[in-house]
Design a protein that fits this description.
151 residues
Length: 151
Amino acid sequence: MRKLYSIKLSFEEREELEKLSRRRTAAADKVIKARALLLCDQSERGPGLKDSDVVTGSGIKPATLERLRKRCCEVGPLEALKRKEQVNRARKFTGQEQAQLTKLACSEPPEGQARWTLHLLADKLVELEVFDEISHESVRQQLKKTSSSLG
């Protein structure tokens, strides 16, 4: 299979990765990824090994190597070793939103329902435009915090 992302390291990048791979205080995952990038290097100074040889030489999994190659081409080799920032989509309920949820959970359930379910509560909060979107799991966690009972 043809490689989609080939790596050609500059002299400075290669030196930095070699320094990192020899350091004793660096994180293990960074060292392993640095060694894998050095083995993948297709410049004059690099060995330019096949993926199967890089996998056996560095101990990295093939899928991880592919992601590392892609990230290296997108953001550069030194930045590729860092972890991506995690996007925290969860936002906290404000006091007013929490009050509306509690009021809704304590009210009469919709017609044809014996009680409020988490899905019904989430749908109703969106319908009332309290939230643009909300999952039933977020509703569950909030009700658990307030010690509310649906029954």
